[in-house]
Amino acid sequence: MKDPELLYLVGGVVGILLIATLVTKILIGKSGETPTLVNLRQRVNAWWWMMLVFCSSLALGRTGVFGFYALLSFLALREFITLSPTPRGDHRTLTWVFFLILPLHFLFAAAPWYGMFLIWIPVYSFAFIPIRSALAGDTERFLERSARIQWGVMTCIYFLSYLPMLLYLPIPGYEGQNAKLLFFVVLVTQISDVMQYVFGKLFGKTKVAPKVSPSKTREGLLYGGAAATLIGTSLWWATPFTPAVAAGMSAMLVAAGFFGGLVMSAVKRSLGAKDWGRGIPGHGGVLDRLDSLLFAGPLFFHVIAYYFGTNMYDAYKQPQWMYDAMRLWIGH
């Protein structure tokens, strides 16, 4: 938070929220507290709180950021699991997921131990989850239950953890400024959601997938996505990109966010729910606000790593303290 360019970005968002708050008050003063305007006020107020919490995590440094996203992963996975009944045979599996797999993954990420970060969930955890459920002896819908837990772990923990991992990307000439990359991803993706919603309400006619997400329209995606891309391009000065590359990255985030939200809406509808939860007034649950970031985060991370030719394996091998602790644990 000592970076002046990051403070400019924060100030810009605060300015937008001040305008949104003022406009909402004026509209309510003229039209009264209609359901639509009450929902708008709830959304704006929620954005104030989310902005405050997000900036507070940045102010605490890397430890604060990783702790913040670990908490978000816990809350998102809890919403994911809560939406459908969990048989007794899965209870102990979920205990291992919430209290071992999740914290260890973020420990490997924050250490950082990049090799283990990559494989802890897709390899070891994916193998462990069905094994632990099989030991419980409940075979009813076994494949469906195991796959559901694996999908929740993959999206709510693994995919989401790529956002704080942006802080560790070694980019030549951009050292110590990666917090702005994290801000860029979150800002462009969330603004894209807002712009698609607004333009969809104003001009939306053609539904993209009416049974999955009735509010998503081609017009909203086209116009809202273009607006978000322009905003992202205008922020090139806070990134290691040229304006042209910033435009491409922004368009990629728009597309990834849109399809990530669409996929998570399909999962949500298959579970018979409209929202993932009720934790954020006007927005639904934590996962409703994060769904567009789940696909955008890992895609953005790996595209940037490829673009700049970074080698995370060599840069972040197993920390010596972790190596010593593991040798002590196994008795050598």
List keywords for this structure.
about 0% strand
Walk me through the topology:
Elements: H1 4-31, H2 35-59, H3 61-82, H4 91-110, H5 114-135, H6 142-159, H7 162-165, H8 179-203, H9 218-234, H10 243-270, H11 286-308, H12 312-315, H13 320-329
GO molecular function: nucleotidyltransferase activity
Membrane topology: Multi-pass membrane protein
InterPro entries: PC_trans (IPR000374)
Question: What does this protein look like?
Answer:
This protein has 332 residues and is mostly helical. It has three domains: 1-59; 62-170 and 315-332, no CATH class; 173-310, no CATH class. Helix content is 74%, strand content 0%. It contains 13 helices and no strands. α9 (218-234) runs antiparallel to α10. The longest helix is centred in the first third of the chain and has 28 residues, at 4-31. The mean pLDDT is 90.
Count of beta strands: 0
Characterize the overall form.
Answer: globular
CA-based gyration radius: 21 Å
Average pLDDT: 90
Largest sheet: none
Tell me the domain tally. Answer: 3
The percent of residues in helical segments reads over 70%
The helix/strand class is mainly alpha
Terminal residue distance: 43 Å
Distinct helical segment count: 13
Helix and strand run: HHHHHHHHHHHHH
What portion of residues belong to β-strands?
under 5%
Enzyme class: transferase
Protein name: Phosphatidate cytidylyltransferase
Keywords: Membrane, Nucleotidyltransferase, Transferase, Transmembrane, Transmembrane helix
Transmembrane segments: 7-28, 48-72, 93-111, 117-137, 149-169, 181-199, 220-238, 244-267, 288-309
